[in-house]
Amino acid sequence: MHDSSPSELAHRLLDIAYDLTAASGPAAVSLRDVQRRAGVSAATAYWHYKDRADLLLAVSRRATAALADALVDAIASRAGTDESDLSAVCFGYLQFARDHRGLFQAVVLNSSIEELMHPADSARGRAGLAAFEVLQRAVADFGQGKGAGSGTVTETHADTGETSIHVWAACHGMAMLLIDTPMATLPEEEQERLRHQHVRFVLNSVS
């Protein structure tokens, strides 16, 4: 058995569970297997995570932070182009699902309204924002952009929150279709065409 401080051991258990999730999805994670890989007793593992659900919640929050980083990076990668932040966020979400299926599935485990509206610190990315907050900012900026040129009234905070939920739901639905249904067997070029088409549909719906 390895000797570690409580915080070090909790992080090691989480690291192992996170790596297993990234490789094979949350269904592949068991507290007993994580405990064995960490080289600690079951009692020690249960001291830090009371059950599998508790461990998967920690994994889910870390995966959500990784998604937040991916969305921020997607916005940054398109800086200086005509593409809106909202477009970048939608593409970033779809691409995260494609490239990190296991972590994306873990994010889904944590997709409660409470977690969206009141994210834990561990669910926040490098910029201090959770994934839904990145989306909300992009929606708000998109709404302001519409108002600036058309004379329309920009969205209120409440409207932005509701619009963000609908955008999230739309992108999430397409992401799930492309990774967890027969559509996942489509050639990548066809899937990419659908992603582009879907993002245009979402933006037109918000406009």
Give descriptors for this structure.
Tetracycline Repressor, domain 2; 207 residues; mainly alpha; disordered N terminus; 10 helices; single chain; Arc Repressor Mutant, subunit A
Report on the structure:
This protein has 207 residues and is an all-alpha fold. The protein folds into 2 domains: 1-50, Arc Repressor Mutant, subunit A (Orthogonal Bundle), CATH 1.10.10; 60-206, Tetracycline Repressor, domain 2. 73% of the residues lie in helices and 0% in strands. It contains 10 helices and no strands. The protein has helices spanning 6-24, 31-38, 42-48, 52-77, 85-99, 101-109, 113-117, 131-150, 157-180, 188-206. Helix 4 (52-77) packs across helix 6 (101-109). The termini are far apart.
In brief:
This protein is mainly alpha-helical and 207 residues long.
**Secondary-structure element order, N to C:** HHHHHHHHHH
Form type: globular
Question: Structural class of the secondary elements?
Answer: mainly alpha
Q: CATH homologous superfamily name of the largest domain?
A: Tetracycline Repressor, domain 2
Give the biggest beta sheet.
Answer: none
What's the helical proportion of residues? over 70%
**Percent of residues in beta strands:** under 5%
Rg (CA only): 19 Å
Number of strands: 0
What is the strand and helix layout of this fold?
Layout: H1 6-24, H2 31-38, H3 42-48, H4 52-77, H5 85-99, H6 101-109, H7 113-117, H8 131-150, H9 157-180, H10 188-206
